[in-house]
Design brief:
Elements (H helix, E strand, L loop, with lengths): L2 E4 L4 H27 L4 H13 L3 H17 L7 E9 L7 E10 L2 E8 L4 E4 L5 E7 L5 E7 L1 H18 L6 E7 L5 E4 L7 E3 L3 H7 L9 H15 L1
Parallel strand pairs: 1-2, 4-8, 5-9, 8-10
Antiparallel strand pairs: 2-3, 3-4, 5-6, 6-7
Helix pairs in contact: 1-2, 1-3
Length: about 240
């Protein structure tokens, strides 16, 4: 089993809980006020309030589930692999001052950055496009489309930012990246072959285990030290 000592409680799950609490704190008085002043429409106000609580931060909740599923898979790796989740890497080019990486795997055959998506639909796109398209079916059977950020572009930026940080701290090493769609209903169709591996539901663990680096990984201990340091700052 992989080393999971640096895995912490999912930040997205915590943000969902916070969002629900704030909606309850702020929304309850507002709902009460409206119900009191609009007694004929109390049921409408009540339904809106209920749905706002149930739907709070639904995207983050889905993302958290996807990351947890992926972690369960990665835990099957041998104990020579170390897992990290939700690492904030300094990046002055962003508004927040850092770039968040979903999952990082460090093993005897390399360092792997994993970008996790939990879309439950067919997703089409092109590696060069800014956005991809999710083809969804509504509760009543209606079909519609939504835009999703191109995960390959996201992944490449993450790999670049991490590589820069490690180089700056004398822990330079080659980093591989992979996109993993964790939902069982995910179906990915790209218009051309991807320059990075894109997996849906399975194949990620096998890919990591079978990966053959062109050059022997170096600075592995320094890389781990840097990731541990970043993890402590991220918590």
């Amino acid at each position: 089993m992989a080393d999971t000592q640096y895995i912490t409680k999912n930040r997205l799950s915590q943000e969902v809980n916070k969002a629900r609490i704030w909606i309850a704190i702020i929304g309850a008085p507002i709902a009460g006020f409206l119900i009191y002043n609009l007694p004929k429409f109390w049921w409408i106000v009540g339904l809106i309030y209920l749905f706002s609580i149930l739907g709070a931060a639904s995207t983050k909740r889905s993302g958290a589930k996807g990351e947890l599923k992926t972690l369960k898979l990665l835990e099957k790796l041998p104990d020579s692999y170390i897992l990290f989740n939700q690492i904030d890497v300094p990046n002055p080019r962003t508004k927040r001052g850092f770039t968040e990486l979903d999952l990082i795997v460090v093993g005897p055959n390399g360092v792997f950055v994993i970008e996790v998506k939990n879309n439950n639909s067919k997703v089409t796109g092109d590696e060069q496009a800014a956005n991809w398209t999710a083809h969804k079916i509504g509760r009543k059977g209606g079909r519609y489309k939504t835009k999703v950020r191109n995960p390959i572009k996201q992944l490449k930026k993450q790999v670049h930012v991490l590589a820069e940080h490690l180089k700056k701290n004398r822990a330079s090493t080659w980093i591989e990246g992979a996109v993993f769609f964790s939902h069982r209903n995910a179906r990915i169709k790209l218009s051309s072959q991807s320059s990075v591996p894109v997996f849906q539901r399975k194949g990620l663990v096998e890919y990591i285990l079978s990966y053959q680096p062109k050059r022997s990984p170096k600075n592995t201990e320094k890389v781990i030290q840097q990731l541990v340091s970043l993890k402590r700052r991220s918590c």
